Amino acid sequence: MAMCSEDRISSLPDHILCHILSFLPLKEAVRTSVISTKWRYLFASISTIEFDDSLLSGLTDRNVDSFKNFVDRLLKFPDQVSLDCFRLSDGISLNDEDHDFDVSGWICAALCRGVKEIDLFLDYFGCVLTVPAVLFTCHSLVTLKLNAECRKIDVPSDVCLGNLKTLQLRNTVVDGDSIHRLISNCHVLEDLAFIECHLMYASALNIKTPSLKRLVLDLDVVEYGDFNNVVVINAPNLEKADISIYLFGFSDRETSATHLIQGIIQGICTVRSLNLTINDLIFRTCRLPIFHNLIKFEYGVLGSNGRETWLVEFLHCAPNLNTLTLNFLVVVETQWKVLHMEVPSCLSLHLKEIKILNFKGDMRMFEMISYFLDNAMVLEKLMIGMKSLSETQQSIVFNQLLQLPKSSKKCQVVIF
Questions:
Q1: How many domains does the chain fold into?
Q2: Is 197 in a helix, a strand, or coil?
Q3: Measured between alpha carbons, how far is residue 208 from residues 61, 241, 261, 353 in Å?
Q4: Handedness of CA 158, 162, 168, 174 (dihedral sign)
């Protein structure tokens, strides 16, 4: 019996086919134009467009003009559908002198098509990254992601992003005035992220956003010259914070560093979930507020000297904590056996899950685990990551852990 193959994909409506094509790399989406007459121009109506250096591979002087014309047809022709996402990945320069690409024109064309998300990774030759001013007055934008490649972002005086809910700045030198001007004019902003950004010189980072729910603050802070950096966070509805602060050159400036960290900690005390990675030698000098709402806490442990005392002090300030994760990023040198402090109330009443990452199996970490098992009265699960240990070592350690006395009869020990 002869088999008859049916092209069911091509029979789908055009808008569904265009949605499918939006998940393909642009080159692959364009290649579908040879399938049949129906597919010939479908790629021109895709809702996600990404340009990256793969499009430039093999591009010669002869076909540069053809590539430019292709981009113009793809972006600038009238009656095009609105865009969900426009993305420029690494390898595309804003002021490209080799190919003379109209990158600013591409961005403006995407904005004219009512784009909802813009993600720009832009190489740039200069100290300040200047993008088209219309980017900061686009009412269709819901998500804006900018990678400034270790440069400041030139934010114009006229900013109005009335529908922007997500703002992500990556690898940016933070200019307090520009950033404040940008953030303060995003009136429905819910997600704000500074990723691998740099705070240096005398600068104030002012985050005043009543609508903000989630904050990522990943900063390299460099002590340079007349250091007077300040971070102020005023976000009363903040629910989740991911804070990573790396301090450089503060050996003789502990007071300045403490003042900086104090502003951050005071501004996030309303959160329900906190992921914190910071040098505890500086952090221990801060006055801790009470985290009444905090139920989930992850601590990336950078320091070693006296951190067990600081951690217990923090737990005293988180009376309703439910889940605790400890990520040991350096060698452990704790002294839990000699720790004479009142047991935090969260251990007695609320803490149900403890997760310990990068467990090495040394005696001091056993002391820490023993402390928690002794004092966590309602603990239900103790999870311990042992990926650095062999299977034989994991088995030995697991059996040793099972021998430790537990105050909570419901506690299960799990290794992963």
A1: 2
A2: strand
A3: 49, 15, 17, 33
A4: positive
**Which residues lie below 8 Å from residue 190, measured CB to CB, with a gap of 6+?**
165, 166, 211, 212, 213, 214
Q: CB-side exposure of 337: number of CA atoms within 13 Å?
A: 6
Q: Per the domain annotation, does 60 fall within a domain?
A: no
Range of 319's domain? 291-416
Domain presence at residue 41:
yes
The dihedral of CA 315, 317, 321, 324: what is its sign? negative
First and final CA of the chain: distance in angstroms? 54
**Considering the domain boundaries, does residue 21 fall inside one?**
yes
H-assigned helices in 270-332: 280-283, 307-316
CA 74 vs CA 68, 86, 95, 359: distances in Å: 10, 12, 21, 53
- Spell out a b/e string for 387-400, using b for 16 or more CB atoms within 10 Å of the CB, else e: eebeeeebeebeee
195-205 average pLDDT score: 78
Q: pLDDT tens across 50-100, in order?
A: 887 666 666 666 777 777 777 777 787 666 678 888 988 766 666 555 667
Q: Are 336 and 308 in contact (CB under 8 A)?
A: yes
User: Is the predicted pLDDT of residue 131 greater than 90, yes or no?
Assistant: no
Instruction: For residues 230 and 335, give the distance between their C-alpha atoms in angstroms, rounded to a whole number.
Output: 34
Q: Is residue 393 part of a domain?
A: yes
**How far apart, in whole angstroms, are the C-alpha atoms of residue 51 and residue 75?**
12
Torsion of CA 362, 365, 370, 371, to 10 degrees: 150
- In which residue are the tokens 């909802």 written? 116
